[in-house]
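Ticket #4471: structure export looks truncated?
Reporter: QA, pipeline team
Priority: medium

Steps to reproduce: submit the single chain below to the structure queue and open the exported record.
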Amino acid sequence: MDRPSGRFQCGRLGEKDACSGGPGTQGRCPLAMISGASACRVRRTWKGRKRLIGGGVIAASLLLLISAGLLAGPETVIRPGPLSTPHAQILSGSLHGSGANSGAADCRACHAVDPSSLADWFGLASGHGSKHDNAAAAQSQRCLDCHAKTIDRTTALAAHNWTPTQQQQITARLIDRRRDGRPAVSLASFSPAAWLGGETNQTAGTVHADVQCSVCHREHHGDDRSLVAMSDQQCQSCHIEAYGDFASAHPEFRGYPYRRDTADVNESGRRRVAFDHASHQVKHFPATLRDGVAATFECQACHQSGLARPSGEPFGDFANVDYRAACAECHDASLRAAASPGIVALSLPSLPDDVVDAMAGSGQRIRWPDAATGFLDGQVSALQSLLLRGDGWTESQIASVQDLSLLDPYDDGDLRLATNLAATVARMINAIAKGGQPELLRRLVDAGCEQEFASELAKSLAPQMVQALKSRWFDASKTDAERFDSDTLLSLGGWYRDDFLLKLAYRPTGHADPVATAMLSMARSGRLDDSVVQRTLADPVVKSCAQCHDGASVDPMRLTGDVRWNEPMTPDDGHRFSHGPHLKIAGLSDCQHCHRVDESAVMDSAGQRVNAVGFAEMTKADCAVCHRPGAAPDGCMQCHRYHRH
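Actual output as written to the record:
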């Protein structure tokens, strides 16, 4: 029987004694199973011969490949592709191996998997299973071994480097926007398989804290492939809100670019330096005459291009000039006037004669200076209140003696408060005179001040000054009450003692004075009670600083010396912008094309600033004029960074 579709046929095909059934599927003649019958010699069909030849060729090829792999090593046979230029340059240097194992050394420099194990290679290639997941996590940690200087390891694998708390706050804010009918872009429950072809869970609000580096950064695609290039489709795979092009689908700007929208949902949007452009352009500059002509308000006078700034910062092609160049001409005089009273660290209250006599005759035997005797008077300064808190005083105790002139000199309870204050101040002066700067630092830290700022203040005061003060006020048989003229004798700033007013005070040296900066920074550190903060900000010197440095930053000031204001434009939201390419366009070379001063924002009816910077907000339409399909790029990564820092 002829079976052209089978592998075998009868050897007597066409003859009279050919069997009718033909050979079986295994190539055996059925007559061979009959005793005495003459079996034929089964022949292969053409299809059978082709399968036999093809199988032999495949087997021989596999044998050759396996032999080549065993001889050359799997790191030579299995190569995923050439590296990108930055990584290839690193491996060609100190990390490069040598000799027969150079390829393996290259792989191990970045990969935790042993390239000599074929099982590991195929396990990773499958893209599934615990081996793949563990290797991906280990791989990300190896990436961070080199990149830890540019990205915080603790949040490197979290979505957009936001902590779980920040992600939850952002999600809550986006839900509020959606409830209000405003467009929002929120994250889906993320899986690396979202854009790699796997399944994805679309539950909104999930915290994404384990996004491996390889999800976005795909290596071994050639030296001309960018590792940081991202498509809109990749962004869309994690954000459940569908969006299209920038002009039609991007949410409308809110307060851009002047409101500081931070990851902790701080809606205040204030700047570290509060400069009201509107009031300066409309009011102050016209009132300032130079050679009889009103001063010109020019953006380039303060915002200059080409000044050195760390690379990678938003708006890195522009920087602000320093205080001396931009502000000193008008504001130095007012700063000197505000500095005249100084920052009072220690002062003696004035006590009635009978109270002084009682103190001298008591077990404390405190000799109170004559200049502080006569009537009940005196105030506790902000810095002195901090030192009292370091001595164990509570806020209610300090508040009760804040202004001794308000106490009743005929009330025994009020007199006890004043006496307690005087005795404590005397002991404090004695302790600082003996203990020096460590004692002063201890009191400030115990009061809740941050070590950095307390040290800045403590190191400026020489212990000999407190020792001389103690000797002059308490130990001398007679005190000559001499008023110290700090305006004349201490015009450059520093610590001084006034024997007439019986106070130890510090006169700031000028703008960005380290002691004044430390006081403002302590108030803005978030570690002190509200009452202490308000008392510190009410100090005349600190108040003059806070007029411009109004606590906009969550971080303390940390300003020392002659600093630039080079704060990033939006430090937390991952937004980026460069003035450079925009200023090359003729119509955009004028700053006020985009930054339009809003004259109505100077003051409201109550005399308060409505807009801290004095600019009208920019709208999406301002950017969409150019950034639209067929014109300037409008992809997500054009303006947004995945890694915020």
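Status: closed, not a bug. The export was complete when the record was re-opened. Leaving a note from the reviewer for reference: The chain is about 40% helix and 5% strand.
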